[in-house]
TrEMBL record:
<dbReference type="GO" id="GO:0015144">
    <property type="term" value="F:carbohydrate transmembrane transporter activity"/>
</dbReference>
<keyword id="KW-0472">Membrane</keyword>
<dbReference type="InterPro" id="IPR006060">
    <property type="entry name" value="Maltose/Cyclodextrin-bd"/>
</dbReference>
<keyword id="KW-0813">Transport</keyword>
<protein>
    <recommendedName>
        <fullName>Maltodextrin-binding protein</fullName>
    </recommendedName>
</protein>
<dbReference type="GO" id="GO:0015768">
    <property type="term" value="P:maltose transport"/>
</dbReference>
<keyword id="KW-1003">Cell membrane</keyword>
<dbReference type="GO" id="GO:0042956">
    <property type="term" value="P:maltodextrin transmembrane transport"/>
</dbReference>
<keyword id="KW-0762">Sugar transport</keyword>
<dbReference type="GO" id="GO:0055052">
    <property type="term" value="C:ATP-binding cassette (ABC) transporter complex, substrate-binding subunit-containing"/>
</dbReference>
<dbReference type="InterPro" id="IPR006059">
    <property type="entry name" value="SBP"/>
</dbReference>
<dbReference type="GO" id="GO:1901982">
    <property type="term" value="F:maltose binding"/>
</dbReference>
<feature type="signal peptide">
    <location>
        <begin position="1"/>
        <end position="22"/>
    </location>
</feature>
<comment type="similarity">
    <text>Belongs to the bacterial solute-binding protein 1 family.</text>
</comment>
<keyword id="KW-0732">Signal</keyword>
<keyword id="KW-0449">Lipoprotein</keyword>
<dbReference type="Pfam" id="PF13416">
    <property type="entry name" value="SBP_bac_8"/>
</dbReference>
Length: 429
């Protein structure tokens, strides 16, 4: 057999292998996926195509209805796929999908929060973001992508980000002090406890608002990456130091933990009795309406000279693993989280973009509140998404109640908290 014939046979085999590989698409992309072979060496495959007759339902909160319907109209014009909105917020969608997905009545695409991914993966209701993974990683904040990655698999399509920072009334204080010494000094001149007048307020008993202090000192929840339930660093030496500092702040906020909640903070802030209100972008709209000269600033630095590290959340669209139209679902999730549509969602609803170009756009950066929250987000810690996170909140609340209300020893309180967390995790409570 000649060398020329050998080469011809080998070439034929290679071509057949390439065609089979190209037609198959990436692994795990779902039944019915179609992808055209590459036109030539070095060229990318053509776009994924939606299934014939595909019709999608999308779950999200009511305030997103107009945004989704506008995106759905553009998607219909481009791909001839109908998309219908149904109201179910990101805070409830994952729990609902665990039931509705296997029953065949769940939405094809639904908005959710990254810390619920573990629950969704365990229940088998989430389809990985595989086809668009490279694009998703390349165009979004690294922190957001990391938050949506569970056991090294990317599941979500980043939609928006959020964290906490310090709202302030410019008529009461010029700016947020750079450090907590400045906050305490201001409180000593501003506070009037009999008149319910305070310099600063946060939800002292809520672990979401406690973590910025402890994390800034070096505490961590589940390992350095938030994925190891056996490694709880909430009672290490740094955590104890942070808890002692929190305890010292009782002198400028002498209220019980049960007397501080979101509604009380907002009421005092909007009535000019609170100068600084630690909260998140979800309050921006209502506070703008009530506070004439509203500002927002980064967290003050801690006494150890380091910045505080608040928890952060990433909202994303997820694809139901039981959808009849995996191609169309992935395409819509990718479409509505593009740079263009994240800017549009910011314009319509104030959603802070996860997309780096959208976040850097003039539209977003020219907004003095959004730009600060995005800056604070880059110095935040995504809430762990493993199921064990559910065992953090109640023990943390109990620990802070004893530390703040009863002046208990911080180390003893945190030791007891971690002991309780470990016991709950082991028993699956």
């Amino acid at each position: 057999m000649s060398r020329k014939r050998n080469w011809g046979i080998l070439s034929s085999i290679l071509i057949m292998m390439l065609l089979v590989s190209a037609c198959g698409g990436p692994s795990g992309t779902g039944a019915g996926q179609t992808a055209d072979p590459a036109a030539g060496a070095g060229e990318e495959m053509q776009e994924m195509k939606p299934e014939d007759g595909a019709k999608l339902t999308v779950w999200d909160s009511g305030d997103q209805k107009a945004f989704i319907e506008e995106a759905a109209k553009a998607f219909k014009e481009k791909y001839n796929v109908d998309v219908t909105f149904a109201e179910l917020g990101p805070d409830k969608s994952m729990v609902q999908m665990v039931t509705d997905g296997p029953a065949g009545v769940g939405a094809d695409v639904f908005a959710g929060v990254h810390d619920q991914i573990g629950q969704g993966v365990s229940a088998g209701v989430l389809m990985p973001n595989d086809w668009f993974e490279e694009d998703t990683r390349g165009r979004n904040s690294e922190l957001a992508v990391k938050a949506l990655t569970y056991e090294n698999i990317l599941y979500g399509y980043p939609k928006s980000v959020e964290t906490t920072a310090v709202f302030y009334n410019k008529d009461l204080i010029k700016e947020v002090p750079q450090d907590w010494k400045g906050v305490v000094d201001f409180a000593n001149t501003f506070n009037d406890t009999k008149a319910n007048k305070f310099a600063i307020m946060w939800e002292v008993g809520n672990g979401y608002y406690v973590f910025p202090f402890l994390g800034g000192y070096g505490a961590y929840l589940f390992g350095k990456e938030g994925t190891d339930a056996t490694d709880i660093g909430m009672n290490n030496e740094q955590a104890v130091e942070g808890a002692k500092f929190i305890q010292s702040l009782n002198k400028i906020l002498p209220l019980k933990t049960s007397d501080i909640n979101a509604d009380i903070k907002k009421s005092l802030f909007t009535s000019n009795k609170l100068a600084m209100n630690i909260s998140g972008p979800w309050d921006t709209g209502s506070l703008k309406e009530s506070v004439k000269n509203l500002g927002v600033g980064m967290y003050p630095n801690l006494p150890n000279g380091k910045p505080m590290t608040p928890f952060s959340g990433v909202k994303a669209y997820f694809v139901n693993a039981y959808t009849k139209y995996p191609n169309a679902s992935k395409m819509f999730a990718d479409f509505i989280t593009s740079e263009e549509w994240q800017v549009k969602n910011f314009e319509m609803n104030g959603a802070l973009p996860a997309n780096t170009k959208a976040a850097a756009s003039e539209t977003v950066q020219s907004d003095p509140i959004a730009s600060v929250f995005l800056k604070q987000f880059e110095n935040s810690v995504p809430m762990p998404s493993i199921p064990a996170t559910a065992q953090f909140w109640s023990p943390m609340e109990a620990a802070m109640s004893s530390i703040w209300n009863d002046n208990k020893d911080p180390k003893a309180a945190l030791d007891n908290m971690v002991k309780q967390m470990k016991s709950n995790i082991q028993t699956g409570q």
